[in-house]
Amino acid sequence: MTSTARTDVASNENGGPSRTSARHRPTQPRRRPPRNARGVAASFLGLAALLAAAPAAAHWTPTTFQVGGYLSLAPHGGVRDVRRLLLANGAGLDWIIAQDQRNVRGVRGYDVAGFRTLLDSLRQAPDFHLRAILRDEPLGALDAPHLFEYAHDVPARTWVAERLSPANGLDPGPSALGWDVWDEPLDGPTMRRAVATARELDAQPSAAGGLAFTNLCGIEAFSGANNPRASAFGVNAAGDPERAYRAYLDAFLAPFDSTAAPAPLVSFDEYPFQYERGDLRGWFGALRIVREAAAAHGRGGQAVPFWTIVQLSPYASGQPPCGELNSADTTYRADFGFAETRWQVWTAVAYGAKGIGYWLLGEGRNRCEIWGPGLWSGADADTSAASGRYSQVRALDAELHTLGPVLMKCDPVGVVHADSLGWPFLTPELASNPSRASRMVAGFGVADSEAMAGELRDRASGARYVLVVNKSRTGPRTFTVRFAEAPTAVWRVNRASGHESPAAISGSSLRVVDLPPGTGELYRVVLPAQ
Predict the structure, then answer these.
(1) Is 182 within 8 Å of 160 (Cβ atoms)?
(2) What is the 3-state secondary structure (H, E, C) of 281-329?
(3) Which of 47, 216, 225, 466 has minimal Cβ neighbours within 10 Å of its Cβ?
(4) Which residues of 238-255 are buried (b: 16+ CB within 10 A; e: fewer)?
(5) What is the pLDDT of residues 275-333, one digit of tens each?
């Protein structure tokens, strides 16, 4: 494993910076002041001018299933940024975190006023609904890529008040979902600063209703027998990534236990299919531990909502020591396709995720890595053209939004896996484990090793749901789901329409036929006791 030492990042013509796991995260580049006649600059502060949002509330609370992603503004700006924003909006995204990265030739993007003018024109379209999680990458800052990173000796209240000054262009606006506070805090002091900033944002009247967004690491950041991070959050958990990860999540969530409201959100990234050398298999462990931590730190019987950042763009890496990569080095992992993205999304939803973020929407590179097409492709083209993944993302987002009203009113109970298939951390959730959290599903058919089912419960009505997911990434599968108690009725919730239709049951069994790879099917289950 490599360290998390930061390295400068450069974007390509149409792409953005690399986003890696915590072990390979580079930094943002040194910023330069704007120089051209249009006031071109290196920040996306102007994304506050995207589009109208719901009326502000005292504490940010999600009401709809949120789908978003990370995009890079074009180095030359202009019409290409319009195309990218329209593509993201057209694919059904609700939010973006944009990164304006100068490339190695020093090409620059917009200033605040210029970008706001451009986005104001997009607001006129009634179907333009995209909102921004604001990121300010300060001019001249080598190692301060996020909105509220500040020196240890600056009080959070002072810094937040200064950053939210209208003069900085970061004051709340109707099109801003919130602010990107921090990405992957990985030591105690950094975590404390991130939490203090998020708490201060939540308490600021001028920030009412905005999301203080912090994205955390996945469990892979704590793997390895001699990983120093395993002891960075108050426990000596060397060689025990689950215990270390629980301490890490508690370091973020527990400080909110004494505040008027819990943490607004838990978000984390984990990319199991990133590397050519094989899968990173902490995925299900991270989902389970995040789900449990979010429930433990909720209020009034409602868990803290959680989002998962998933991999959309294919990835290629250079051999160490990393030198400059070029097009000849671009050999992506052969078995990474949209099935892997869809697999991440539906398995996360089965665990209770209330939102999804895609990394990366466009193309990007740094000195060691290349990220391929996401929603658009064409590293050196004069336009940002929709990639082959565009229609697939759009269809998946439509399904998530269709099922969103049901998903948002439900809390996760637990997940049942037919078989671990070699993935660690799954012992507590195997159908063979009598102590598992979910008891509604007793098991699966004899040959259904790739089946999993997430149990969800409507927190108001008590209605029971099960989301059956095909863990195969290569082809459709037919599963038999066996319930512990024979249902009186089972209703399939159509992913395309949201309408319910009766599903055939035989005694205590439900047969799910030809479920596509990496896809989930939602059912409402009526039990005799109901």
Answers:
(1) no
(2) CCHHHHHHHHHHHHHHCCECCECCCEEEEEECCCEEECCCCCCCCCHHH
(3) 225
(4) beebbbbbbbbbbbbbeb
(5) 877 778 999 999 999 999 999 999 988 899 999 999 999 988 755 555 555 545 567 88
